[in-house]
Design goal:
six-stranded mixed sheet, 13% strand, single chain, alpha/beta, seven-stranded mixed sheet
Amino acid sequence: MQEMYIHLNTHSAYSLLEGLPLPVELAQAAQASGMTALGLTDHRTLTGAIEFVHACRDAGIQPILGLEIDLEMGRLPLLATSMEGWSNLCRLSSAIMLRDNPGKLCSLDLLAKYSGDLLALAHDEIQFGSLKDIFSKRLYATLTDPARSLPRAKLAGQFGLPLVVTHPIFYLAPEQAALQRTLAAIRQIQPLAKLSPEAVAPPSAYFTSAAEMERRFAPFPKALQATQEIAERCQFDLPLGVPHMPVIPLPEGKSASQVLRERAKVGAVRLYGQVTPEIQFRLDHEIEVIARMGFEPIFLIVEDILDFARQTGVPYSSRGSAASSLVAHCLGITSPDPLRLNLYFERFLNPARVTPPDIDTDLCSNRRESVIQHVFDQYGAERVAMVATINRFRPRSALGDVAKAHGLEPGRVREMVNRLPHSFWARFEERNADGQPVSPFVELRKAYPAYGQIFDEAEALLKLPRHLSVHPGGVIVAPGPLTDLVPVTRSGSKGVVITQFDLEAVEALGLVKIDLLGIRGLTVIGDVAEFIQQGQPERYPTRLGVLDSTPTTDSATSDRLETGQTIGCFQIESPGMRATLREIHARTEDDLMAALALYRPGPLTGGLKDAFVRRYQGKEPVEHIHPALEIGRESCRERV
C-alpha cells in the first residue's frame, strides 16, 4: 500500500563515517514501507548519488537528490528540483570540499550564489529568518519532534512558511545506534568515552516506517502531505547514459572528423610511405565508425597528450585493444601495426558499443605528473579532474579503527590487527557450506573472547566506504565546467582535484575517461636512455631519440628471450611466463606477442596454451575450422 509520507532527509554510508546504510538498503527500506519516493541528503558530498538513483529505479521509487550542508545556525538539507538544481548541488558541494578546511561552516553568501532550483528544509527560527530571502517559496519549516511540533508550527506561520515532516536517518534499525556512535568516534579520532553528543547522529535516527511517521504526526496531515508535494517538485532525470564528449580547439571552419581524417592521413604517409587503397579503405571505415559515434575528440585529445609527452621526453607506450585501430596507429597513439598483425578494428570499437572506448596509455611514473598537468593546462582546470576510487573498510582497517574507538591501547590493537592477513581478499570472499560468508575474525574471536562487540562492529563495517582516494590513472575531460554535472573534491594524499564519483558513476554520466598510468619499467628505460643521451649528445639529441633508434632485432636480446632470462621485464618476468618463452623458443616481437596472448587464464585452464606450443613447434598438425583462420599460418611456420 502506498503511504502519504516520504523520507526526505536520509544519510547513506557515503556520508563518510556518519551514515551506515548503503543506497540500495535505503531504497529497499522505502519500497518495503510503501513509499513512492525517497530523498538522499548526504553530508557535504554527493558521492552516493548515482548509486542511489540506480537503486531507487530498481526498487520502482522516485529518487530525490539532495545535500546537507553546515551553516552557522546548524545543518541544512537541500533538495534539487531540476538539472539546474543538481548543478547547483554539485557546485556547492565542490566549493565546500575544495576549501583547505571542508568542515568550515558554509557562508550564506556561498549558499545564495548556488541556491537556484533548490528547496531548503529549515529547522528553527534563526534559519527561518536567515533563509527566507534566499529561498522565498522554496523554503519549508520542518517538524521533527511531535512534542515540539505545535510551537514550531506557530513560529513557521509567523514567517509564512509551509510545514513538512522530516526525520533524519543515519541507520536502518534502532539497534544500530551503538554502531553509528562507534563510526562517529572513528571520524572524530576519539575514544567513545570522550565523544561529544554533538558528534553523534540525533536520537532515534533509524529508518522509521511511513505508518509510524503518520501516526506520530497525525495532527499535522498537511505537513505529512507536503512530503509528496516536495517529491512532485523534485521530479527530473539525470542524463545517465548520455555521452558528454569534451570540446577541443579546432582550426577555424573544420570539424573534428575532418581534422582526425587529415592527421590520420599524414600519419599514414609517415608510416607507410604512401596511402594504398587498402590503407585508405581501412582508414575510411574506422573514421566513419568513430564519427558516427561522436568519439573523434577522444582520439584527438590522446594524440595531443602523447605529442606533449614526446616533446618533453616522457617515455610512454600503449596497451589494450586500441592497438587494433589503424587511426590510433597513424596518430602515434599506438605502436603495433594493425595491418601487419591482422588486428580487427571491431575488437576495439564497433557500432554495437555505446560507451566511449578505452585508450590506455602507460607513462614513465616519475614524469607522469607533468603530462597530467598538461591536460589541466590545455583543457582548463575547471573542465578536468582525476577520477576517484572509493576505499572501503577491509578486515584490518575495520578492526583497527573500531578497537581504537573502544579505547584499546595501541599495542593491543597492533597485536590483533597483525594476526590478520595483509591481502584484503584473504578470507574476505570465502563462503561456508551454506553459501554464507566466512568471518575474517573467527580465529581472533577465539583468542580474544572479551572483545566480541569489537569484532561484531568491525564485521558490520566491512565493505562500507571509508574515504576517497585517487584512481591509478583515470583523468576526465568535460565539455564545459565539470561541476555542472559532477561534484569534485581534493585528494587528501596528493592534493589534486578529483571527482566525488568513482569510475562507474563517472561513466554512467557519459563522461570521457582517459587512462594515464604510471609504470616504473618505463622510468627505468627513460633513465637509461637519458644516461646514454648525455654521453652521446651529438648522436642522440633527446632521450626519446635513444629509444626510437632501438633496433627491432638484436641477437643478444633474442638469446635472452629464448632462454627466459627476463626477470625485471614488465609482463614477462613470472616463472610461468619465462617457461612459455622457453617452450616456444621466442626470439622476435611476434613470438613475444604470441606468448603474452597465451599466458592468460582462458588458454591456460583450457589446455590451449599447450596445444599451441605443440603446433607452433610442428609436433602436431594444425586444423582450422574455417579458411579465414588460415591467415598468418605461413608466417608462423617461417618463424618456427
